[in-house]
Design goal:
By secondary structure, the protein is of the alpha+beta class. 17% of the residues lie in helices and 33% in strands. The protein contains nine helices and 21 strands. The strands form five sheets. Strands 6, 7, 8, 9 and 10 form a five-stranded antiparallel β-sheet that branches. A four-stranded antiparallel β-sheet has the order 1-21-20-19. Strands 2-3-4-5 form a four-stranded antiparallel β-sheet, with no helix packed on it. A hairpin with a 5-residue loop joins strand 6 and strand 7. It is globular. 31% of the residues are buried.
């Protein structure tokens, strides 16, 4: 503007110049004067920035809950838990699985070291203001005295008073079977009963025909399923699959065809029983079909995350089907889990025997601020230039 406040350039020309800039440069330029600030908030400008920066297909509309393209750009940039904040070394061998309690105050881990650990964190409200997760070990159960080979999977009951852990029991003559240990978190002991594959799991005196209804539907994945997860509303099923070659027919289940190294993350609408989105891709697996193992995934309100054999965890946006983050480990990432109370906190578990905690850039800025203070409107992305 000149000294009288009259713009030296028309808005249309400033807009064209801003189209050639990146998001951080647009925000910085918006601090120069009122005219540039107004242009830097233009909805059409941020629509172009959004599709170009995130490489979203142009036929994908804006998220229905988004109020503006600017805010949607900020959401994807600022709320993904991609900043590593803590590495936990509670285990001495590969960490196979993680599960959060329903309250979000605890999580459990299973490992090849044959232990299952229940770990407490700060309350969700406190996590936002605490730079560390304030982690303390609540309970560690060594299952080797029960002749287990390793612990494999865990889940909390509805009120988080019990922790169920599955593992592999080694029987006589090198036989093995699955067992489930029920651990009371209140009195810290393994309950005397363990449900085994030999027990009356389906109910005494009831055969499978009486217990189950008739088959409703079959979803053909045409590949080897290595992980599954439901969306929080239980409507969408996410499946990690390694595909068989096109046209392959599995004549002998004991000799399936080779499977792909690429992992397809498929999405099915359980209301219509149809695949609803193109497969999400980025993560990979390398073990052959006779050796492959589960790669656990988790789904939050806005994101889906998965492990992979390429030493990374991955996060995608559920609406735009784009990969937003790669989370580095030193070995295979077996399991990922979002906090059920706060999707900007994610845990990953790896064959490198570590559990890593990840937070969003937005949360990290709050944690690193010396004291609560008003924040400028453009600081969320302009600060990245420093």
């Amino acid at each position: 503007m000149d000294e009288g406040g009259t713009p030296l350039l028309p808005d249309s020309l400033v807009y064209q110049i801003f189209l050639s800039l990146g998001p951080a440069d647009v925000l910085a330029a918006g601090l120069v004067c009122r005219q540039w600030q107004a242009v830097s908030r233009d909805e059409f400008l941020w629509r172009e920035q959004f599709y170009r920066y995130y490489q979203v297909a142009r036929d994908v509309p804006r998220h229905p809950a988004a109020m503006s393209w600017y805010e949607e750009f900020q959401r994807l940039y600022d709320t993904v838990p991609c900043v590593e904040v803590q590495t936990l070394r509670e285990h001495t061998d590969q960490v196979l699985h993680l599960s959060f309690s329903h309250s979000g105050y605890q999580f459990a881990s299973c490992s090849k070291d044959c232990t299952v650990k229940a770990i407490t964190t700060a309350a969700p409200a406190e996590q936002i203001w605490s730079n560390d997760l304030t982690i303390s070990l609540l309970h560690s159960a060594d299952m080797r005295p029960y002749n287990w080979s390793y612990t494999q999977f865990s889940q909390f009951n509805k009120d988080d008073s019990l922790l169920l852990a599955s593992g592999v029991f080694l029987g006589p003559h090198n036989s093995s079977s699955g067992e489930i240990a029920v651990i009371s978190l209140g009195i810290k002991q393994i309950l005397p009963h363990q449900m085994t594959t030999a027990g009356p799991v389906l109910g005494e005196g009831r055969g499978s025909d009486a217990f189950f209804d008739a088959l409703d539907h079959v979803i053909d994945i045409h590949g080897h399923i290595i992980g599954m997860g439901l969306s929080p509303d239980n409507r969408y099923l996410y499946v990690n699959s390694r595909a068989w070659p096109n046209g392959a027919v599995v004549a002998d289940p004991m000799q399936p065809p080779p499977i792909a190294e690429e992992i397809d993350l498929l999405v099915f609408d359980l209301k219509t029983m149809r695949e609803v989105r193109r497969a999400l891709r980025a993560h990979r697996a390398y073990t052959p079909n006779d050796e492959c193992f589960f790669i656990f995934l988790d789904v939050s309100r806005d994101f889906v995350a998965s492990g992979a054999e390429d030493r990374h965890g991955y996060i995608w946006d559920r609406h735009y089907n784009i990969c937003l983050a790669r989370l580095r480990h030193e070995d295979v990432v077996n399991s990922v889990v979002f906090s059920p109370q706060e999707q900007e906190l994610l845990l990953t578990a790896s064959d490198d025997a570590t559990i890593k905690a990840w937070r969003s850039p937005r949360t990290m800025r709050v944690l690193q601020a010396p004291r609560p203070r008003p924040r400028t409107f453009f600081s969320w992305l302009a600060s990245q230039r420093r």
